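Researcher: I'm preparing a figure for a lab meeting and need a structural model of a single chain. I don't have an experimental structure, so a prediction will have to do for now. The sequence is pasted below. Please return the structure as tokens so I can convert it later.
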Amino acid sequence: REIAAEAGTGKPKIYRHFEDKADLFRAISSRFRDLLGASIFANVDFAEDPTREVLGRAVAEYVALVEAHPNVMRFIMQDRFPEPAEPAATGLNEGRKITLAVAEMFDQQLPDMDLDHAVLELAAAAAFGSVSVATDWWLGPDPDSPRRMPSADFVAHLTTILLGTVAGTAEMLGITLDLDRPIRLAEPRDTP
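Model: Understood. Here is the structure written out token by token.
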């Protein structure tokens, strides 16, 4: 109902384009992921922008997309189906695609380092989970719920949390990363 309302049409017109509710969920999740990717990649230069700015802009783009489509985000994050297993799995699969893309981005920016890809994937998955749950909290339990804090504060706090994840991941990987410089300038940490 909320998706149809946001689209400005009735449920029957929407559902006739999909096999079932799970198919609709897959399409919406994929579209949201694509919109997010397009908005982030258009606004950051991973090779040249400082890590802090990359994350800050990425979070700002994400929050702007959530604010523009809060009911769509709720639909993606919350089990809105009588049989939630497949949609929940679809949401997780979309999350996996995002986390693998983030891990791959680190690999691409640091091609001369032999980074433990499992650590990168774990960190990206932890970040994805944190962002998802934080977004659910921020939106509140109901469509009429007021935001738990102003969007600018949410962006700032979420960015700080993600910067902590990046710094911790760099430490686990044994690299020195200055968050005020591009990721590609990270260096192996000297070991005693």
